[in-house]
Amino acid sequence: MFRPINLWFGLLSLRTSKLRAALTILGIIIGVAAVIVIVSLGDALRRYTEKQMEQWNSGLIEVSPSYGPIYRVYREMPVVVGDVKGGGMYPGPVQQPSLDLKDLEALERVSTSIDGVTAFYETYGSLVYKGKQAQIGGQIYGTTPSFMLVNKKALSSGRFFNAWDNNSAASVAVINEMLARSIFGKRVDPVGEVVRITANGVTQNVTIIGVIANPDEIWDRTAGALIMPLRTTWLRFTQGGQRTLNGISVRLDARDKAQRQYAVAEVATILRARRGIGLGMNDDFQVYDTLGYIDQQTDVLTAITLVLSLIAGISLVVGSIGLMNIMLVGVSERTPEIGLRRAMGARRGDVMAQFLTEAVLLSLLGGLIGFGLGVLGSQVIGQVIEDLRGLVQVTPNVAMIALGVSVVVGVLSGVYPAWHAASLQPTQALRHGQ
C-alpha cells in the first residue's frame, strides 16, 4: 500500500547514497537514451524515405510490359508446338510484349477512377553542345504533354511542349535544372539553346524550350534525361519509326487503399479487354501501385528500427538486474531499520511498499535523465546528418513509452527485494548486526 511516508523514505535513501544511486541507474539511463535516439532517427529516416519516394513516383500506378518466360499468343497467329531448351512445350510463334498508344487511349477514354495518364519511350544517345560532347547519361525520354500533370512537376523557366509539338514531331526538348547546370553552366539560361543529339545512328538538332525545377530528384528517373515529345522520339531518333512504349504512368491522387486497389483493378481490366486477353490467359503487362513500394520500404525501416531498439533495450535489462542487486544489498544493510519499523507497527505491506517506491524512484530518475539525453542526442545527430534536418522528432508516444518502461523496470526489479525485506521477522531484524 502506497503512503506519502514511503516516498519520503525513498528520497532520503537517494540523498544518503548519491554515488550508489547514480551507478545503479546508469544502465537505465543508457538504455532509455539509446532507445529514444534509435526510435527518433528511425522515424526520421522513414519520413525522409517516404518524402523521396513520393517525389520519385508521385504515388503513380505504373504499367509496363511483362517480360516473363511465356507471352500471350495473338489469335491470328498459327499455333506451333516446339521444344523449349531445358524441357517443356510452348505455343509459338510468341509475340514479344509491348505497350502502344491504343493502350494509352483506352485508359484515357474508359477509365473513371484515375486523375491523369501519360506514356513514355526511352532510348539513349550522345549530346554535343558548341562542339563539345556533354558528360551526361545520354537518356532520351519521349513522353506526352500530360507528363507534367501526371508527375506533379513545375517549370522554373520556359515552357513544356504541347499537343501541337507532339503531333508535328517538333525537334524540342525540356531538361531539369541539374542537367541544365551540367551542360550550360550555372549562370546560363538554356531556353532557346540548340544542342545536337545522336541516337540510334540518327543525328538531329534539338532546341531547349523549358527547364523543370528539381528541388530534390535523386530518385527521379528523368533527372538526367532530355525530355522530348513522344512522336519526336519515335520519328526522329529511331530507325524505321518506332511505335511502342516502355511504360504508362497513371496518376491517382487518392491515398485510400481501397480506392487505389479499385483503380489498379480497373486499369488491368481495361488493358485486358483492349489487348484481347481472355479468361485463363496470362497478362502480358504488369500494373503496379508505387505506393506499395513505399509501404514495403517503410515496413523494412520499421522492422530494422524495432530490432535495433530491442538490442538497445538489453541495457535496460542489465540496468534492471543491477537495480535489483543494489536493492538486495540495501535490504541487507538496512535490516535493523526494517526491524524497527516492524516493531513500531509497520505492516509487511508498508515495508514492501517502501522498497518498491525506492526502486521505482531510482528507475524513474534514470528514465528521466535518459529521456533528456536521448532527446538531446537525437537533435544533435539530426543536425549533423543533413538529409534528416527538420525530420527528427521525439513524439509524445515515445516519451510515454520511455517513462513507462522505466516504471515497469523499477517495479519488476524491486518486487523481490521488497518481498524479501517484508518477510524479515522483527525480532531477528532488530538483533541483526549486534
Report the major sheet. Answer: 6 strands, mixed
The helix-and-strand class reads alpha+beta
The strand count comes to 14
End-to-end separation in angstroms reads: 31 Å
Alpha plus pi helix count? 14
Mean pLDDT figure: 75
Spans where pLDDT lies below 50 across 5 or more residues:
68-95
SSE topology string: HHHEEEHEEEEHEHEHEEEHEHEHHHHH
Q: How would you write the strand order of the largest sheet?
A: 12-7-4-13-1-14
Number of domains: 2
Percentage beta strand: 15-25%
Percent helix range = 40-55%
* Radius of gyration using CA atoms only: 35 Å
Overview of this protein structure:
With 434 residues, the protein is an alpha+beta fold. Helices cover 53% and strands 17% of the residues. The chain has helices at residues 4-16, 18-24, 26-57, 101-110, 147-151, 163-167, 177-184, 230-236, 257-274, 290-333, 335-343, 348-384, 396-422, 426-431, and strands at residues 61-65, 80-83, 89-92, 116-124, 126-129, 132-133, 139-143, 155-158, 172-176, 194-199, 202-212, 225-229, 247-251, 285-289. The strands form three sheets. The chain has a six-stranded mixed beta sheet with strand order 12-7-4-13-1-14. Strands 5, 6, 8, 9, 10 and 11 form a six-stranded mixed beta sheet that branches. A two-stranded antiparallel sheet has the order 2-3. It is elongated, with a radius of gyration of 35 Å.
